[in-house]
Design goal:
seven-stranded parallel β-sheet, 30% helix
Length: 628
Amino acid sequence: MFIIDVIPLSRASSIESLSYYSSTKYEPGSLIEIPVRKRSIPGVVISANPVSAAKTAIRAATFSLKKLAEQEHHASLPASLMRTAEELTKVTPAHLGSILFALLPPDVRSGVREYPHCIEYTNEENSTPVILTGTTADRFISYRSHIRQALAHRGSILFVVPTSVAVRSAKEALEHGIEKRVITFSSTHTKKQIEKSYEGFADLSAAKLIITTPNFAFLDRHDITTIIVEECGSNHYKARTRPYLDARTILTTYAKVTKRSILLGDILPRTEEEVLRKEETYETYEEHPKRLNFESAFTVSTHEKKEGEKNFAIFTPELIDAMKRTLKSKNKVFLFAARKGLAPMVVCYDCGHIFRCPDSGAPYSLLETGSGDTMQRWFVSSTSGKKVRATDTCPDCGSWRLREQGIGIQQVAMHARKIFKDTPITIFDHTTATTHVKAQKLTKQFYDTQGSIMIGTSMALPYITKPVALTAITSYEAARAIPTWRAEETLLSLLLSLREKTTKECFVLTRSEPDYILKYAGKGLVDEFYTEEIMMRQTLQYPPYAVFILLSWTGTQTQIIEAEKYIDAQLTSTEMHCYNAPLTTAKGITRHGLIRIAREDWPNTELITQLRRLPPTIKIEIAPDKII
């Protein structure tokens, strides 16, 4: 008889381990089903000891151990995954079971499939992260060389991309000459495609190129020697569910634990990576470029409001002329709109009342559906998802003089249809591209139609994989209003990405004087941008010179005050700066607590332990992109 200690695998697990007795000895790492209350959940064995070795503890226990049903067939997690999760507990205030649960592929997590068997292995690669900065075309030339070198030495390559759509484009760019060695994993794969991928993954007769999203990145093979993280600056690597892990952090930890080489590439890697590269903590792939060269021209087109002009013109005459020339030559145009709907805000002209969502307090966006007699206008909150019919009058003063503030994608589309009446126009946003399949259809429709226009939000950018003759950001001010402390970095990355998708002209429409970001985007001066950004972050003590930890909780005024007192009492090793989230209401207040830890004091074991003890009603994010 044995005492089996098991970590329950659950996203919201607050239990470190559970003990059972069993007549079967399960090896550490075994994945088994365990009874918890009235249901069975997966768990991973961490130890198995004879009952004789724990008799004293069993007699002293105030509870009885449950019996573990015998399980003949069970998979095991590789030691590499267990060690990676253990390392992550040093910088993540989540229990080991929650971290392991997050690392497992969705079908393994749900019990549909067993974790593939991985034989024991040892690697001796240099695991120091290497940074590659360059345009997509230049990066993929380097990737192909790197991949063929690894395959020549019989090593498999794990190629991680941020989104499902990037899996397909990466496969097309990398598979030439090695088609039979390429395996892809994506959440958009069909059951047949996933089955084929797992079969190829289990085939150890030859080294493979495994292209995957973060969801499947931690399927282990003994012959993987190289990890490549493409578009390492993408915010899609940050999980939006507990325990809010960052796949880039996991992959660099994974590479260190398994002694594999890791290469991180992007057109503009995060400033954190650039600082570590300059400090020589990270290495540089070949030569770091001081500037990037693009084929397309870059034009900043400033709106000139004429005297007596009532309605603001969305397109400048300069852009309209360029679009006409492009469409006449049967080429394509992509217009980027930063906001959804008709307008991101509606305001009463007379009393200044802003229409807000009563649940979140955030301003309503104005959305239009249907056309003609069936046309309806709606107020939609992107924060809470609430959707109500738009009113014609102000609830405070009764005025009908309501004004739309800002430029939304529907407003851009209406303006485009007035000027280019006979031109096919595709709208790509959350209302039209509701699924991956619909998004692909919209993209195909755009590329298959000569002389067409696509108007899209940031959702469309990953799908623009083929060059477009003319692109434009329809409102630079809207694109700049990004609610994140890394706004300049995100904006420059957007501008550079749009330029490299353009073959002829890239326009930026603005109502103000061009700023330094536009200068860097126009000349491709990435090195100058980093110099200024690093100086600013050092002055403000922003990452990487400090680590941000953001706590968030909601409730009534009384509830948030009590919660704040409780948190302060628990966190004895650090100070927390508290503030309300903008636009919250008395009925539902969101309170934030920001902790700033100096880089030299991180990781902080005592603080992580204290954070881990907080209840699940308090959201905890390490290194969040947004702190408001």
